[in-house]
Amino acid sequence: MPKLDASSVPTTEITVLEDAFHQLPDGALRTTLENLSLALRGGQDTFVVSEKEDLTPAEAAKLLGVSRTHLYKILDSGALAYYVVGSRDRRIAAPDVMAYRARMLEMRKSHAEAAAHMDELDDLALDEFN
């Protein structure tokens, strides 16, 4: 899984990338290149992953932003599918990692919304007592 280090990409190359995606019609490729240029301009390193690529636990952990130890707990719980290579090495399909990441982000969003709603209820309760 190649990593594109944002600090190693000259701003002139990012400008060329921006010029290129502006030439494209609206669509998935234009959106992808635009997101790439925004990430690089923002100093964010980027991973390029093919849909057909299988990832090592270390690579999957990087994409998910968790430790490798925590990833093994996720795999052992059955929350993320994997297969074994050789006698014990694990591999995870890139689409499965991305789907798990999307579920994880959605769950975080739901929890944040619930917490915000609880704050609103607390404020309403305090207003009632005043």
Automatic annotation (TrEMBL):
Which InterPro entries did the record assign? HTH_17, SinI_DNA-bd
Q: Where is the Helix-turn-helix domain?
A: 55-103
Pfam families in alphabetical order: HTH_17
Could you identify this protein by its name?
Answer: DNA binding domain-containing protein, excisionase family
UniProt organism field: Plantibacter elymi
